[in-house]
Design a protein that fits this description.
The chain is mainly α and 42 residues long. 43% of the residues lie in helices and 0% in strands. The longest helix has 18 residues.
């Protein structure tokens, strides 16, 4: 009985971990706002 419970919990944790994350190759971020130039101080 204990073995069945452990197997159940391991499968539940593995299923939860496998469901997270992005499916597919990583893509580089697009053009961002930084670094940006600020107006010169007066």
């Amino acid at each position: 009985m204990r073995l069945m419970l452990r197997v159940f919990f391991v499968l539940a944790l593995a299923t939860g971990a496998a469901a997270c994350g992005k499916k597919g190759p990583p893509e580089p971020p697009g053009k961002g706002e930084y670094p940006r130039t600020y107006p010169a101080p007066r």
